[in-house]
Design a protein that fits this description.
One of its GO terms (molecular function) is acyltransferase activity. This is Lysophospholipid acyltransferase family protein. It comes from Nocardioides eburneus. The protein is α/β, with parallel strands linked by helices and 255 residues long. The chain has one domain: Glycerol-3-phosphate (1)-acyltransferase (3-Layer(aba) Sandwich), CATH 3.40.1130. 36% of the residues lie in helices and 15% in strands. The protein has a seven-stranded mixed β-sheet with strand order 1-7-6-2-5-3-4, sandwiched between helices. Strand 3, helix 3 and strand 4 form a beta-alpha-beta unit.
Length: 255
Amino acid sequence: MGKYRKLQHSRGWAWTLAVAIVKPTLLATTKHEWVGAEKIPETGGCILALNHVSHIDPLTAAHITWDYGRQSRYLAKSSLFKNKVANYFLRSAGQIPVDRAAGAGALDEAIEAVNKGELVVVYVEGSITKDPAGWPMKGKTGAARIALETGCPVIPVGQWGAQELLPAYSAKPNLKGRKLISMKVGDPVDLKDLEVVEHTPAVINEATDRIMKAIVALVGDVRGEEPPAELFDPKKAGISSTGNPHKKRTTGETA
């Protein structure tokens, strides 16, 4: 599991408040098994690239990064920022709103954060997986674009168990017993050869495929199962890659 680290910089009021509320709640409702967490860089800009299984994922990711000395910034859906109070809190905590219809601004902000030495968490699939068995689905290119632009390390993480606490698209947590959250942190994804060539769509897609391949292998390790040979593709399945696939979509609904 590795030795926990002290935070390297000031918390800020939003993080101080969030940790005071969230961490005791997570400790009361979950137990965790973290493998390779010492591979999270102690300092410097980087991307933590994870699979996405539950709306509670950002809290469990914040738990591991906090205990290993880093504050995390997230690319979060823009609808979370519509409330003035929520917008003030999320912005004060350094979170980055993503408008899926026009995500360039969010990528620019994430690139700036990485260049300033911050850790940015990216759920590469862009939404909770639509794979019926919970395996990672086809990835989006955001993490690859940030990595290729900045040359920062991409640290892959496979995680499993958060969906037992809060099932995908459910508003009701399962509070019966403490749920095991398993995370395995891998070695940085090798993108060096792609950083030095023109970042064409083919190059960006190749970088995305490498990141997803690393994540899928780690998810297979934490699940103790063999991953599928091909990632689930919502487009091929005729469903949207965002939102609840079992619910009629309403205007502006994402996730």
